Queue: 3 jobs
Job 1
Amino acid sequence: MSGPVVTGIGLLAPNGFGVERYWEAVLEGRGGIGRITRFDVSRYPARLAGQIPDFRAADHLPSRLLPQTDISTQLALVAADWALLDAKIEPGAFADYDMGVVTSNACGGFEFTHREFKKLWSQGPKAVSVYESFAWFYAVNTGQISIRNELRGPSSALVAEQAGGLDAIGHARRTIARGTPMVVTGGVDSALDPWAWAAQIASGRVSRSADPRRAYLPFDSAAEGYVPGEGGAILVLEAADAARARGAHQVYGEIAGYAATFDPPPGSGAPSALRRAVELALADAGMRPDEIDVVFADAAGVADLDRVEAEAISAVFGAGAVPVTAPKTLTGRLYSGGGPVDVAAALLSIRDGVVPPTSGTTDVPSGYRIDLVRGVPRAGRVSSALVLARGKWGFNAAVVVREATV
Amino acid sequence: MTTMTTEDLRRVLIECAGEAEQDVLSGDIADVEFDDLGYDSLALMETAARIAQDYGVQIPDERIVELRTPREVLELVNNSLAQS
Amino acid sequence: MITGIGVRTAGGNSTKEFWNLLTSGSSATRRISFFDPSPYRSQVAAEADFDPVHEGLSPLEIRRMDRASQFAVVCAREAVADSGLEFDTVDPSRVGVSLGSAVAAATSLEQEYLVLSDSGRDWLVDPANLSPHMFDYLVPSVMPAEVAWTVAAQGPVTMVSNGCTSGLDSVGHACQLIREGSAEVMLAGASDTPITPIVVSCFDAIKATTPRNDDPEHASRPFDRTRTGFVLAEGAAMFVLEDYDRARRRGARVYAEISGYATRCNAYHMTGLKTDGREMAEAIRVALAESRTAATAVDYINAHGSGTRQNDRHETAAYKRSLGEHAYRTPVSSIKSMVGHSLGAIGSIEIAASALAIEHGVVPPTANLHEADPECDLDYVPLTAREQRVDTVLTVGSGFGGFQSAMILRRPTGGVR
């Protein structure tokens, strides 16, 4: 029995506009982190982010959609368009109720809503846009993708900070197992307006470094926080037999396993539940640890969190027994977009037989006991990968992707 | 006296709701129904709110849903401006 | 199986008070008191008289949590106590949380915005005035985290944010997790506290809320010919959900079984509804099929009944389309006539009402319904509650983004204990 397969990918990241450009950048070590240019960032204590340069929504979307959407939704709609195009789903291939949308969202349409808050308090209630009622809320990307592509099947929007994107993929897989043959899934976030930027700084985990190459150093002894970014990925996920039946022209791989756990309450002293998420996802995929060829780490860039993740990986796989990598060092953490972009990267690793490196990090404490792929890509057959994502407050999610046996 | 021209309305519509789905905005749109232009009730509500801000003309809620063409909007707005 | 319930609404500071309000047929709506509503088109709301200190929240919790989180946590604690389940006897890795909310920390976001932006004068905000909790308001998954911490849950924890169907979908999500074996016990429900200027003004803009400001107590009038929109509300409901065997084994009181659930999207419009009710009817049909319940077995429909013209007609069409002639014989009522529309929370609050209808054998009425819209020709249980045995309830939700959801609740086999 096979789990659902990924047949299309749409991806927008700070270092690559489109999945192949992103992948090229990742293998060449080109990053998209720089000083924020969307507003005057000089008075803020953190100034680096992963920004998608030169995104012009009007080049990709109908004019009617522009006034009613935040940049995060515009990015999500473009990613969904590209994913469906990549999967070459012909009109009529599925009945409308047989196609669902499950996305994750962490920040909502925040720049849009910031503008409306400003209008409300500087011009009065009558200045607030009719679109504010839906451009802000967390379901907006699911709703707009459903409308634009006439997908009427079971749909949902999940929030779990950075873990949410993997939860969406896990729930899409569940939705397929329950009988809906095709689900568009993933996550996209963008919150690089002044208010959202301040809010991100309030998490206490955003790096204050001014050096784009040294700002986000997960698993490094010098780790001092993460760099936020914008973007994400939308995938077309299909039941394996449905993809076969319609003669899908490509299959990137299978979503073979998924699990989510939650950490014990802060201060309880009990160990993190991340290790259990890894074990449950492997069990769900019916795989042993030694069958996993690479781990795409959550890579928090915060020493305590890095240590917990390194311990979980070495406890399950053995010390240094599996290559670990974090190409998100080139994009920053993308919140709901982070997990789906890593799943895309894992699928491309399988396709091309290469593990992308972690950039920046040089000094991994020996106590971490992980084999972190650094410097240059590591060539070799990759038939399966584990992708991890953790969300602030204790969310852990794990997805196993596997080469599809067609 | 201020009046609102077709061109003014076209500009407000584009700002509030984007360009029409059909490529008719370059021609004479005055008598093309909003449905055919691809503008829905939300587009018209946003437009009415903008007209109230920019021209000081309040279009009553129940009238907004009845307005079918740009000409009807312009007549309502300009009559109201003429009376003020 | 629902084995514990906690509810907070306007006029309902406990599950018991909530049920008393529903059976009395009176509305808890009033002129907005949280801020001066005079600049707004709609000036009425269903405000809860919620006192966090009286509810037992610690000063630290009150400082840390947004109002919507406070509601969720208080309801979670009530549901846990009501269930009689000793959570320290359950493996925490088998306990999960599924929480719904549409606008999450809107209240705190607005308060913080005014501080940071010098009351809206600046686009660049001042990080010097930043609250340490601002990130929790930006990213609302702190809400299910807070609920998880109340019982030290370590299983799957998530937030389902599907706009106005969030409260139905979060509980439906939890049922799927129990059924597939990902959790044995779920704390599920929803919370929203949207009575704040930004939310009031965005519904003003689309004219979805009622401008009937001179008569706040009778402003929420679903299905009535004179209704003019919904009344914004706040509230929360949480449930303890367990699988059948587990609930039986420990001799738990079971309010109701959630036997079917489905959701569909209309892919039509972010706020508009087609008149034919096609997608909601499909969700109902699939929920009935999952429940293995015949349409004719439904003996109460707990409606979405928001009190907008397009909604009332849309769902009336959906009932006829899915239940056929039986729609005309089935009582349909909207509790939004009494507790208002609390966006993402109301779906869970309506599940609570549905479960209590089964337990008490009472169908809550549609308050303020004096003369039905001629296009709405079903039995909407006007004004007064009706005593009747209720075995099977259909409850539905409809929301922005096109979400249409339906759930079937059933008297548990062996009866309510």
Job 2
Amino acid sequence: MHSKTIAELAQGLKKGDFSSEELTKNFLQRIERYDSELNSFITVSEDHALAQARAADEVIAKGNASIMTGIPLAQKDIFCTNGIKTTCGSKMLDNFIAPYDATVIHKFNQAGSVMLGKTNMDEFAMGSSNETSFYGGVKNPWDTSTVPGGSSGGSAAAVAARLAPAATGTDTGGSIRQPAALCGLTGLKPTYGRVSRYGMIAFASSLDQAGTFTQTAEDSALMLNVMSGFDEKDSTCVDKEVPDYTANLNQDLKGLKIGLPKEYFGEGLNADVAKVVEEAIEDYKKLGAEIVDISLPNTHLSVPAYYVIAPAECSSNLSRFDGVRFGYRCDDPKDLEDLYKRSRGEGFGEEVKRRIMIGAYALSAGYYDAYYLKAQKIRRLISDDFKAAFEKVDVIMGPTSPEVAFKAGEKSEDPVSMYLSDIYTIATNLAGLPGMSVPCGFSNNLPVGLQIIGNYFDESRLLNVAHQYQQNTDWHKQMPEAFQ
Amino acid sequence: MSLDKNDVEKIAHLARLAIAEDDIPGYAGSLSSILELVEQMDAIDTENIAPMAHPHEAHQRLREDVVTEENQREHFQKIAPAVENGLYLVPQVIE
């Protein structure tokens, strides 16, 4: 039961092959058995999950079920869940029980899905290896000496080990696509504004977007159908009709124009990864796609611009953690300033403090033009590169990550080398475009991800392009042996 | 831009972060290397480029100026570190 997709599980529930309660128990038992090796969950909400599953079974029995009814899911611990601890991977929120549900959680509750628990993550989503979590690192099920990627590393590891059929994540600079690539999953980051950010703890508000980890593109479509849509509670959520994302999955790819940016295949890309990605492109040619060489000339500036914009927004967003209204408070503060400084100094981990300080510096008097304004201008150039490319092509493809999963500890002492793990994913966030990572092979027995970038709100096409590949390959069906 | 001990202390104060004395050299080093990465932007002339703050060039939505939130003070204050009579407690500010 545990290796089935959402689409298959929904069939089984409908036909009565198993109940949601049985299904939920099965995954809870797998978490119990395996998660001590992986550390992919911060909280397992067993009682809540079983109650939701029983309620779902009643709905199914009455014939009122939607496809997602009774499907167990893991939720990244960045989404506020009413009555269940939400930590964001931080000591700052170790005692935080949100008084409301995030819109994403609310929508899955409305659909009758079951929440198995809350997954581990880099602290406040700041990291590319899941090593900055206050709750300890997460291990990659393909090789537990390597990292699962980050920041949504817990969600990726949980789905890769089939401790959950699917999970949510968030992507600010690659935090869904990079761990999906490193763990051999289908990861989707929708267009900025497609999914509500309400109740999703903010890191960099102009970049953050919620998305999914699944085994297949079809499952991503099923989840996106539930998650998307306008929300008055998020001022940047876009009021645009939500299509049925499964509707175009079966369209053929004849005449599809795939752009290959030369900047994504140059220096810094591991040769084995390049080879696997190039083979996937060959497969697309066989499916009738046409390859177009393109250039995104400002790609090399995306990491520098991101490390001004994201920290600047984070230093502002994280100022709310002051030890007064919720979260961690230091012992015996001698005055108000001491309360602020020590609550924050003790509550935040090293990487979070580093980014807050970079942001505070970039925004401080005399430096705004040189850093923040400059970065926003570069952001325009990067976005214009994509606009020009999408005049000529339907989708853009390349590697998701320059290398496969790296060893734990390998980059944790050198922030800049860690930041460069996201070199191919960050530009998409700066432009606000949707992107996916799809499993396309292995290097050294570790999964390689193919990145597919689409035009604004063109998720249907992205999912179609990924689905057609998955109809003709079985990379997405592979799972790590130790967790069979 | 290379940051020294004084710079780190100043930034930490601006960000209201208590940083242990022993950790300052480490932060000075890593923050300097991040700024070095960031300064690759300087190689590009952006004189006539309009800054981009948001992917969709959206404007702030407006709504009627009416109360929509219910009062949930007790519910929200249940998770506060210290409250008394519906007020959040902090160390004394005025003598």
Job 3
Amino acid sequence: MRENEFRDRLRDALGDPPPIPAPQLTPSDAGDSRGYPRGMALVAVGLAVVLVVALVVSRVALRPTGMSQPGAKGGVAMPADAFPCSLPVEAMSFAQNSAQDAVDSVSLGFVNIPGGSFQVDPAATVVGLPVGAITGQNFYSAALKRWVPAPIEAMSPDGLSYTFVKLLPAGATYSNATSSEVHVFDVVKNSDRKVWSSSSSVIVVNWDSAGILVSVMPLGGGTVLLWRINPATGAVSQAPWDADPSNLPTSAMPDGVSSMSVGPDGHGQYVSRLGSLDKGTKYSIVVVASGKVTTLYSGTVGDSTNFDPAGVYSDGHGMWLGNVGGSPLWLWSQSSGLRSFPVTGLPPMPSGYAFTSFAIIPAGACVPGTFAGVAATGLPPATTPTPSPSPPLVDWAPLTAKPLNLQQLSPGARCPVSPQVNLVVATNGPKAPNSGFGQGPVYVSGPSMWYAGTQGVIFLTDPKYTGPVLIRSMRLDGTGSLSLSGQGATSLAGGAIGLAQTSSPPYWGMWLGGLTPSAAGCYGIQFDGSSFTSSAVIAVSPGPVPPG
Amino acid sequence: MRGRRIKRYGVMALDALADANQDRPFADLVTPLFPAAQRLAYGMLQNAHDSEDAVQEATFKAWRAFPRLREGSNHRAWFLTIVANECKQRRRNRWWSILKLAAPEHQDPAPQGLDGTSMDLRRAVARLPADMKLAIVLRYYLDLEFEDVGRVLGVSDKAAKARVHRALIRLRVDAGEMLNDA
């Protein structure tokens, strides 16, 4: 696939943005409030005062007291240097070659600290436990001594239950659900209980002693609100925006600096990376809690520390962080700073792949003792891809021998732009435009406006013609050229291209490529097939090509 | 609610400046950039309401940062960077994480007539990590050159190309073939 083909496919896939009003730079609704009766204004002022007081009281009550270093959810409170311990982790492998499906795997196991050996847990299973709308994340509960199919943030403080979101109707996804239910599953009692329902989409943010914090968004899109659910009573109360630590304060995000999520630590804190992954770039790893930002580490991409965290969990030792590549594991605490534990026993990278990735994600509290499991196995090697069929060989001489009928325009003459024609295009591949320019059976399609610079172009071929097509072009109102490029085309003398494969009845032929006029002006494009000659004329405006 | 609050404050602040006739340079600078900003926001968020709020909020932030904009800076990259950060901020919370494993949520309906391939691509793009998605949107939805993609991302054009490359790999697109002729 060539760039222009992908560009067109992406635009097809995403669609164009609907017309939305430009941000308001002048007063638009300021006068509305003046129309309210005075009584309403007094009520509003009164409500505002109550709201401000309530906010101040709640902020004082919830004022952060600095970085917390919590105990594990349902785990055993351990001093920071209580080793040995075994840290539950998800080991995630991913490998891919171009034009092949990716392969990936997740192994559940433990890393023995401080030695660093990784052992897969052969007894790990989550079969039989209910799973919410978000699947594929697992947690090891030290209190239960077992794995559960829930993300870190969904575990109860005692580690005996987890919460999950059930989308309705059954089988719905976030894209087509009509309502949501928040459930609590008590693993010990094997009981599932609905604690809240909503007509909006719901995502669990965190479960701590204050309750289950959820992020709620209307199913049709809109403003996200935070609610805290009492898991015992189902009572809810709205939470402030900064209760969700993934909402990085604006002050922590300088303009022009990219940021990435590392993840929640399971205790209401959220780790983010500020700064790109590009070598030599300065970056910081920060943790956010109750709107307070603490920098764990600042460095430069490619420095000797190579701190590239993936996944996080906090327990009595401090904050555990995985690393892209799988080793080392990191432990950060306010008292000891950042420590690393090189990991051994990682599965080998599979062979035969152009792209491989591996990460160890902390998935629970480090439990006392050493874990003895089984050695990790790697992904299978890549299979050999089937080579693409070769295009047919075409003798272009009969087509290139045809005369070029495009005529120069006299000075000042109007550009005889080809009218757009509606087409009914059926393809056996990507969706094709339903209009084009030209006389057929080959049509120019793609944008309706052309600009100097490179744009995507589509040549559509009616299935009534199946043979090769020669495409030549020239500027009709001056000097300049129009070049065509793209996959599956044969470059010929004089800037011409040949399409050996066109339509395949009953389907239309669709060739996607790049069209580059050297300057604004009037251009003709001639199509020659074994049984026809036709042309199309386009007008090119001055560049650059505008976005969209 | 947060977006609405800031939107209101932003309008009020801009109104005050308008009264003093001091925001004209800012308005002149950003108004031509709105179409690109809206396209960027829609490409990132795929939701009209979110896009509108994101651009509005980004505009307010841009206005606030305007005095710090250096003479000769690339205004478009500067403004699009702010819009991009705003979009990423909106997807930094849990709503983003579900995209890894679930179908895209709270998006506007897909354009009519999309075939399976396009739907798959739409879903795959929605599931991309924010930085990869941004690179793809800038390059292929806004048609920016790698140099301009890099300006918005705050990296070199080479690094921007590398990021697009990684994103294409995640999309299971033959990145090498595409970028060889980029």
